[in-house]
Amino acid sequence: MNDNYLTITPRLRIPLRLIEQQAVRSQGAGGQNVNSVATAVQIKLDINAAPLPADMRERLLALSDQRISALGIITIKAQNFRYQHLNRRDALERLRELLLSVAEPPKKRRPTKPSKASKAKRLDNKKHRGELKRLRQSPKF
To answer: Which of 8, 11, 55, 86 matches a 20 to 30 Å C-alpha distance to 38?
Structure first.
């Protein structure tokens, strides 16, 4: 990540001006400081405004991720660190990882058939199990 772009892949970079960054107050314990200092960072990226390939945009919108709104806006809040610049870096890295997860199209599933040997093995196992269960029964006179 350089000063002006968030690099996703060597060929895909998002200008930082498209990513809305806002400092907000952190949640949870932290003493008196937590109520007065905005160290958490919330970033938002509009998927439709970002320069993403169409197929990547479709995969991103199809994700069932709570960070992506119905309008196609990704919202990430980072509050793991006590310093705003570290939280900003963490939020941008998490955004990068999310976009990287949909950068490659998923592999096509090739339907396969079980081999003859595996079918025979399965049937032998069924016969064996059935025989064991039959032997457990009380004898019929």
So the answer is: 8
pTM listed for this prediction? 0.72
Distances (CA, A) of 47 to 31, 54, 105, 127: 37, 10, 17, 56
d(CA 104, CA 59): 10
Residue 30: the pLDDT is 63
pLDDT in tens, 43-99: 999 998 889 999 999 999 998 889 999 999 999 999 888 888 999 999 999 999 999
Q: Are 43 and 116 in contact (CB under 8 A)?
A: no
Fold held by 5-101: Double Stranded RNA Binding Domain (3.30.160)
**Token pair recorded at residue 24:** 């907000």
